[in-house]
Structures are given as structure tokens and as C-alpha cells.
Amino acid sequence: MVAIQVVNIQGEKVREIEVDVTLIDSCVRKPLLKEALIAYNASQRQGSASTKTRSEVRGGTTKPWRQKGTGRARQGSIRSPQFVGGGRAHGPRPRDFGYSLPRKQRALAKQSAIRVRAQENTLIAVEGLEALNAPKTKTVTGLLSGLGLAGKGVLLVSEVHNSSLYLSARNVQKVDVAERRNLCAGAILRRPNLVFSAESLDALLQEAAK
After folding, report:
1. 31 and 55, same structural domain?
2. Model's pTM, two decimal places?
3. How far is CA 20 from CA 7, 15, 108, 113, in A?
């Protein structure tokens, strides 16, 4: 059993919830968490690195010197890779590095990542987080300061899409916002602190108890 703190929007402790972490996941699946984190990081890569081939660089196709009689190696074009300013041979091209784990593995990895945060006592629930009806960065920074998480990596989790919460947190460094239904193990492991809204935590525990 672990005790999860429930605080208000000012960061003041309201109550505690005793949770059996085995209901979230029966064990911590370290190999699966590693695979999930690698897949998440791979999907974040832009894959935009690109170099020009010999068909794309500037220059002509006339021979730089005649075929025989110069004592030098024969050459066909100054756009060849061996010339300065020539094309790149086997250089990087735009590509998609992302890949996805099977659906059941993604679900197990998410549950296991949540259990890890619960065991580390870095999982907190906040009452009133869903009630934000206007973007206000000061509200989020005040909450994080009250929790002693200012300047630390935090993932805020809401039960439903909350544009006010997203707009309030998007300018705060090392803070991400996600809906509970869109959570993935990589996003959880990327930030060392997990802050649920009270509604999203209740929904999570109800699903785990089924």
C-alpha cells in the first residue's frame, strides 16, 4: 500500500488516499518500460537531417580534365562525392524514426510506469485542477511552488481535454500536459513527477479495481 497525497490548487494537503499498487499493475516490468521509453524517444525525433546527392548539388557533368594523358585518375564530373563541393555519398535523408509497440504492451507499460511513480511517492492528486476556466500561468506556477516542484519535470494529467490548463502550462519549462486516456509510458517516464487531477486519479483507480 502507498499513500497518495491529495492537495488543493494552492498546493495545500487536503487528504491522503491509500492505494494498493498491485491493482495498478502486478509488478514493475522493467524490460517493457525500457522498450516503451526507446519507442517514445524514437517517435520524438524529427528525422529532418538531409544532405544533397550528386544529382542535387551545383555543377556540371563535363569532365574536369581529359580521360588520358594527365597522369591523374579519370574523373567524370565535379559533382562526384570525392570533390570538394560535390554530392554526399550515402548521407542522411529525411525519414521517420518512430515505431509503435503492440497495443497490449503499451497498456501494460503505462500501468507499470504509473506504479513506479506511485512507489516513488512522486504521484500527487490535485483537487480543482479541472476547474480552470481561463488560461493563467500564475496558477500553475503557484501550484508547483506549493508542491516544491518548481523547476522540476512534471506531467500534469487531466481527465478530459482542458485548453485552459494546457495554455496555462505551455510556457512553464519542464511541464507537460496530457489527458489520462492519451497517457503513455514514455511521457510518464520522461518527467519524474506525475500530478493527476483528482477526477483523473479516481477514474484510474476505478478502472484498476475492475
Report:
1. no
2. 0.84
3. 20, 17, 17, 15
